[in-house]
Amino acid sequence: MVRKLFRNADIYTSVDRGAPLAGTALGRVARLQGGALYSVNGVLRAVGDERDVLAVAASSGIDMEVDCQGLCLIPGFVDCHTHMCFATLREEEFGLRLEGLDYLEILRRGGGILSSVRSVRSVSEQELFCATRRQVLKALQFGTTTVEIKSGYGLNTQSELKMLRVIERVGKETALDVIPTFMGAHAVPESHTGRAGEYVDLVIDEMIPAISAQGIARFCDVFCETDIFSVEQSRRILMAAKASGLGLKIHADEVHDLGGAGLAAELPTVSAEHLLAASDASLLAMAEVGVIAVLLPGTAYSLRKEYARAAYMRKIGVPVAIATDCNPGTCYTESMPFVFGLAVLKMNLTVSEALAAATLNGAYALGMADRVGSLEPGKYADFLLLEGSTPAILAYHAGVSPVVGVYKKGELVAGQ
Ligand code: NIG
Ligand code: FE
After folding, report:
1. Are 379 and 408 within 8 A, CB to CB?
2. Which residues lie below 8 Å from residue 18, measured CB to CB, with a gap of 6+?
3. Cis peptide bond upstream of 268, omega within 30
4. How many Å apart are CA 250 and CA 196, to the nearest integer?
5. What is the DSSP code string of 132-159?
6. Ligand 1 within 6 A of 330 CB?
């Protein structure tokens, strides 16, 4: 048994009330100046005023004491949407985008996601593991303690399973909690050009059964977009995934308002991601059933698009989470502090709202809120120490990470 007391901290955390935070509750963050945490085997037993926590700790025993030196302490980031399992970068494509070529046009010409598919298929499983671990460890340095990683650069059963095995292994061999999502419907592979319907059948009849038989993914995601997968195709895939016991996610209305967000509300999915072009009607439907909007401001930044309408979502009561979308195409960053800054400065979330979106609501989007996302008894001692006196430093100190210590289950895993 390892009993740890972390004292002399300035703690900021959202408070979990059993559901994702929305509306005015999104910005309600608790602050405990002169606060402390007490953990047993990596799980929090007490959080609060130092004197109260010390009383609990003293009666149960303390094996190790850490002085947090009055630093600002927040929950570890939950990056609830990434495509971090990839083999090579796509800098050439970035250059084409800078020259004005459209992201979806690059894909139509056989680049984009399809070029990542070629490289993921061509490398060995060990090479893919090393590349993915490298990306994940970078995220850890920036304060991500729980991360979702999607497949979707395999696009056949064998290569999708290879990706999911790699993702599972990264979860076992790093400190982070890694949540695997199956995204076989990320694009139509070259083998099925012009035959998207047949590819959808393959996803439903072969991939989903194989993946659920191996219990190797927790969620299923679909790229619902013009010329990728229609609303009807997305519905078929997600209903099959649901029948197989997978949780549901959808890339919805990222480039065009196709109605993916409306489908998210209809099914409903746990979350709908991107939503740059989502209509008022779809967002209102999401608010009604509590679908979490996973906003990815780094993608709007890199694609030079309008940011998602976070203020409107807050007003109508859609729960909002933020994540990196880390991928070699539309957004190459592992940095939650970068995304946090964009959320505050470009989407006009308050600092407290951005904190909830990057932690507790991200945890809800992954079905992990019983374990992570806020600092409360029963959850993991996953937390960050920041230089700077409030979490505003995450937006204020632009382009630099103010994360100086990363603790996962009570262990120092990066920094200091
Ligand atoms: O979330 N939109 C689809 N998927 C990713 C991009 C993947 C890629 O270009 O490799 C996204 O933007
Ligand atoms: Fe994505």
Report:
1. no
2. none
3. yes
4. 18
5. HHHHHHHHHHTTEEEEEEE--S--SHHH
6. yes
Report which bound ligand comes closest to the CA of 80.
2
Distance CA 87, CA 242 (A): 29
Q: Ligand 1 pocket, 260 CB below 6 A?
A: no
Question: Residue 4's closest CA among 33, 50, 49, 44?
Answer: 44
HSE-up (13 A, CA, CB side) for residue 407? 25
SS3 per residue for 236-269: HHHHHHHHCCCEEEEEECCCCCCCHHHHHHHCCC
What atom in ligand 1 is closest to the CA of residue 86? Answer: 10
Distances (CA, A) of 51 to 98, 110, 168, 171, 188: 56, 62, 41, 36, 59
Backbone angles phi, psi at 327, to 5 degrees: -160, 160
- The amino acid sitting at 88 is T
- Residues with CB in 5 Å of ion ligand 2: 325
CA of 225 to the centre of ligand 1 (A): 11
151, amino acid identity: S
pLDDT, tens only, 203-246: 999 999 999 999 999 999 999 999 999 999 999 999 999 999 99
Q: What atom in ligand 1 is closest to the CA of residue 103?
A: 9
User: Which residue in the block uniquely carries the two structure tokens 């694009």?
Assistant: 187
- Centre of ligand 1 from the C-alpha of residue 65, in Å: 44
Instruction: For tokens 């219990």, name the residue.
Output: 215
Judging by DSSP bridges, how do beta strands 320-322 and 383-386 pair with one another? Answer: unpaired
Residue 300 alpha carbon to ligand 2 centre in Å = 11
Are 50 and 6 in contact by the 8 Å Cβ rule? The answer is no
Measured CA to CA, the distance from residue 280 to residue 277 in angstroms comes to 10
Query: What pLDDT shows up at residue 72?
Result: 98
Evaluate: CB of 329 within 6 angstroms of ligand 1.
Answer: yes
Q: Are 220 and 183 within 8 A, CB to CB? A: yes
342-386: per-residue pLDDT in tens? 999 999 999 999 999 999 999 999 999 999 999 999 999 999 999
| Mean pLDDT for all residues in the chain | 97
Give the distance (Å) from ligand 1 centre to CA of residue 324: 11
- Check residue 308 and give left, alpha or beta (phi > 0: left; psi -120 to 50: alpha): beta
Residue 348 CB coordination number (10 Å): 14
